[in-house]
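Entry 14: structure prediction run for Alkyl hydroperoxide reductase AhpD. Input pasted below.
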Amino acid sequence: MNQISWLAVPDEHGAHEGVRRLWSKAEANLGFVPNVFRAQALNGEQFLAWWNYFNLLVNKEGQLSNADRELLAVVVSGVNRCVYCVVSHGAALREYSANPVMADTVAVNWRHANLAPRERAMCSYAEKLTRSPEAMTQADLVPLREAGLSDPQILELVQVIGMFNMTNRVSSALGFLPNAEYHTQGRPKSSS
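Run finished. Output tokens:
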């Protein structure tokens, strides 16, 4: 197995009990344990606190669709050049959008993707907040509102962007390696 982090990674015997339960649940639901779950298990309580908020924000029913949240994840992660998150959330975007061409294009440059005006407004906002948070003004919300986003949707959008900026930095700083399974996830099966 390749090294998945530049830090030590606990095994099943050294991991926090709650982390082991999460690993088992991931294995049952996904068929594998995401490397980010293993790599952050070194500090079990902190990882579980992060996971609870991440899970609430990204995986539960909310103001935005799962495809919207994954679109934001891929744009932010692409701007930050976070290999783990572009690969893993690119896989999720392929699945939720059922459009692997769009998802792969967004992973490289969202401006080249065939996106609806609402999606373009979200991507533009995500890129600006990621690149220049100090330059944000109230006027930056206008294109989002013009694209039909409500205030609760805008708040969730900002929270998702913030979460991925933080997670990208942790993943990149510690060299997290994405699981091989992500590279084929959400892609059409070969007919050969």
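Notes: Residues 151-173 form the longest helix (23 residues). Will compare against the previous run tomorrow.
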